[in-house]
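tokens incoming
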């Protein structure tokens, strides 16, 4: 399957939620035609209780592979998964090339030295995405299915050491990455369930989204997936620089944009003068 074919499975034209699916990760996703992997174990969502319904959307903010696995479990509950992963997996296509650009050479040096090559290791997420793609290919999803937006909880800090020669693919979300509250309500969404680990309040970038929805009358519920308790309604804490006109420009100042869209580029060497 080509990246375009894979992305179309995740973002079919028939779904009203497809405009928000991010293509960045899929541009470098190569899946075998036949599934020779062990797949993923079914995720038990019984702790979420009776949290389902056409009037509730979900946001899954868990570390990469876990996010994908819970998203797949939500498909079985009648949801449409909407991947919002907006970081590039890394310059894999540069590996093994006879000639490479200076920035690609830095990445190759990191490989040969055994150092981490990316700020966020997305390899396991990509493998899970291939398995999930095959599941979606043989699954009929109701055109009216509510959305389950999938995020990587490692997006802001990464999960590897960050330094020279590392491909910095950290990223963040903005209100523009999600439907507006009016759009959600027009399509019957009255509440949102946030699924996380070891926390109930959203990460700061996501708080900018959820507080807008909350102010527009959408109820926000949260669930720590490690706890047995049922989801509870929360009041989103106001994040810093909320609704400031210059918030986006300042927020991305420490991130690196990818020429292919989304976030990701190699941190260059610091050369001393003289």
């Amino acid at each position: 399957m080509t990246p375009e074919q894979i992305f179309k499975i995740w973002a079919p034209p028939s779904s009203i939620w497809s405009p928000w699916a991010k293509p960045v990760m899929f541009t470098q996703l190569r899946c075998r035609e036949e599934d020779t992997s062990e797949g993923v174990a079914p995720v038990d969502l019984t702790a979420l209780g009776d949290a389902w319904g056409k009037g509730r959307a979900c946001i899954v903010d868990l570390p990469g592979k876990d996010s994908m696995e819970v998203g797949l479990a939500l498909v079985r509950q009648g949801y449409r998964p909407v991947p919002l992963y907006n970081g590039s997996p890394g310059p894999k296509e540069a590996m093994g090339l006879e000639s490479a650009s200076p920035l690609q050479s830095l990445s190759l040096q990191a490989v040969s030295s055994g150092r981490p090559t990316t700020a966020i290791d997305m390899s396991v997420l990509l493998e899970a995405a291939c398995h999930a793609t095959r599941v979606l290919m043989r699954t009929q999803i109701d055109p009216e299915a509510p959305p389950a937006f999938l995020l990587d909880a490692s997006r802001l800090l990464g999960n590897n050491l960050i330094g020279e020669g590392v491909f910095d693919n950290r990223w963040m979300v903005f209100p523009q990455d999600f439907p507006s509250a009016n759009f959600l309500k027009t399509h019957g969404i009255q509440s949102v369930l946030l699924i996380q680990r070891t926390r109930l309040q959203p990460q700061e970038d996501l708080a900018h989204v959820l507080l807008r929805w909350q102010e527009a009358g959408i109820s926000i519920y949260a669930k720590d997936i490690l706890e047995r308790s049922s989801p509870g309604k929360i009041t989103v804490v106001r994040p810093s620089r909320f609704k400031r006109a210059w918030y986006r420009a300042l927020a991305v100042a420490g991130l690196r944009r990818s020429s292919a869209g989304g976030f990701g580029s190699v941190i260059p060497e610091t050369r001393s003068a003289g």
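note: Residues 3-266 form one domain.
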